């Protein structure tokens, strides 16, 4: 296999995707490539991925590599930091016979991950899933002991300007199938007009769908300046000690923000914010709701998401998979039926109109003459 293209590289895949252009080669350092990162790479229509870390370590069955292969994007592994450090962003490299070339000179070797290798590694991941589940349970119990205030209500909820009381709240996270799920519930959004809450990049997801976020919540590391400027209110997630790295960026844009110190993730505090402000119903799009989601997030704090869901569960409806549950299809017989139904009253009214009755009589006489009746 021979591939040539310009390199875009970053150890944070989500940062690099903002700079990728069609035809680029993405050089990443991403262990256990997750589904969301893979989907963002596919959207950019890149030529291939070079990963300087294990794309599938076998710790759990991550879906990212399969998504890339399904989209026809080859994955090469060149384990180690040497290649990553040798290549500068924007330089053109070549991949030929599992070797990497820069300016015609070999700089390293790489291994193509094909379907067979990925399936083998995924099977190892499935075998390890029970072990990871045990670790997750232990972490969740430990977290519950340490941060039980998050669930029992001892974490203070800041005052916000947006009035949520008695209304529905739609919380959007850039997670699995978020685009299709947003599209599937457009009728709900347009009819109910819920409070729209974007979690970091979820705010941009709302903008892309034609909606202005009422609130953007997060540490501000993956949301655009445009989204921050257009959103009606900003809530910055801070550490429990009050330090909020994202606040500086908001201030640089000349905007105001509410600071929410809390353990856990930005997704968690968005749920707590809606719940504590007496939302009548919380609808979640793209949020984490199963074991693989939690493991793909790759942080021990995901235990907080599990606990927060226990707290808000009575009001929470997950929109994940709505697009698979219901897909509308127009059938020709329905269209014909509607057309005939619409014609019946028109025909009746027409026949009752005197000039039309005379015209119909003339047509009837003309037909009799033509056919000798």
From TrEMBL:
<dbReference type="InterPro" id="IPR036759">
    <property type="entry name" value="TPK_catalytic_sf"/>
</dbReference>
<dbReference type="GO" id="GO:0004788">
    <property type="term" value="F:thiamine diphosphokinase activity"/>
</dbReference>
<feature type="domain" description="SteA-like C-terminal">
    <location>
        <begin position="320"/>
        <end position="370"/>
    </location>
</feature>
<dbReference type="GO" id="GO:0005524">
    <property type="term" value="F:ATP binding"/>
</dbReference>
<keyword id="KW-0808">Transferase</keyword>
<keyword id="KW-0472">Membrane</keyword>
<protein>
    <submittedName>
        <fullName>Cytokinetic ring protein SteA</fullName>
    </submittedName>
</protein>
<keyword id="KW-0418">Kinase</keyword>
<keyword id="KW-1133">Transmembrane helix</keyword>
<dbReference type="InterPro" id="IPR022215">
    <property type="entry name" value="SteA-like_C"/>
</dbReference>
<dbReference type="InterPro" id="IPR047795">
    <property type="entry name" value="Put_SteA-like"/>
</dbReference>
<dbReference type="GO" id="GO:0009229">
    <property type="term" value="P:thiamine diphosphate biosynthetic process"/>
</dbReference>
<dbReference type="Pfam" id="PF12555">
    <property type="entry name" value="SteA-like_C"/>
</dbReference>
<keyword id="KW-0812">Transmembrane</keyword>
<feature type="transmembrane region" description="Helical">
    <location>
        <begin position="334"/>
        <end position="353"/>
    </location>
</feature>
<dbReference type="GO" id="GO:0016301">
    <property type="term" value="F:kinase activity"/>
</dbReference>
<keyword id="KW-0067">ATP-binding</keyword>
<keyword id="KW-0547">Nucleotide-binding</keyword>
């Amino acid at each position: 296999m021979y591939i040539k293209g310009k390199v875009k590289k970053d150890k944070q895949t989500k940062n690099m995707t903002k700079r990728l252009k069609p035809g680029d080669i993405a050089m990443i350092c991403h262990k256990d490539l997750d589904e969301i990162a893979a989907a963002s790479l596919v959207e950019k229509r890149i030529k291939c991925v070079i990963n300087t870390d294990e794309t599938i370590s076998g710790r759990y069955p991550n879906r990212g590599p399969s998504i890339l292969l399904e989209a026809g994007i080859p994955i090469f592994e060149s384990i180690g930091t040497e290649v990553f450090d040798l290549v500068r962003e924007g330089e053109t490299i070549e991949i030929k016979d599992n070797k990497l070339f820069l300016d015609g000179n070999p700089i390293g070797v790489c291994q193509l991950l094909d379907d067979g290798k990925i399936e083998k590694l995924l099977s190892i991941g499935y075998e390890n899933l029970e072990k990871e589940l045990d670790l997750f349970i232990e972490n969740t119990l430990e977290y519950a002991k340490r941060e039980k205030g998050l669930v029992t209500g001892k974490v203070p909820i800041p005052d916000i300007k947006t009035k949520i009381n008695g209304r529905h709240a739609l919380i959007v996270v850039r997670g699995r199938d978020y685009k299709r799920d947003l599209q599937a519930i457009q009728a709900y959004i347009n009819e109910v007009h819920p409070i729209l809450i974007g979690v970091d990049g979820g705010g941009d997801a709302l903008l892309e769908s034609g909606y202005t976020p009422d609130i953007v919540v997060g540490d501000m590391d993956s949301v655009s300046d445009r989204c921050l400027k257009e959103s009606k209110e900003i809530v910055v997630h801070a550490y429990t000690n009050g330090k909020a790295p994202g606040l500086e960026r908001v201030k640089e844009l000349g905007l105001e923000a509410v600071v929410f110190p809390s353990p856990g993730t930005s997704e968690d505090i968005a749920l707590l914010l809606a719940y504590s402000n007496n939302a009548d119903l919380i609808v979640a799009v793209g949020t984490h709701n199963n074991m693989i989601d939690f493991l793909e997030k790759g942080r021990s704090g995901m235990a907080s998401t599990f606990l927060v869901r226990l707290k808000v569960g009575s009001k929470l409806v997950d929109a994940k998979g709505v697009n698979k549950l219901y897909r509308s299809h127009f059938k020709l017989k329905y269209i014909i039926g509607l057309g005939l139904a619409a014609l019946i009253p028109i025909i009746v009214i027409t026949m009752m109109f005197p000039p039309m009755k005379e015209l119909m009589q003339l047509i009837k006489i003309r037909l009799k003459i033509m056919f000798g009746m």
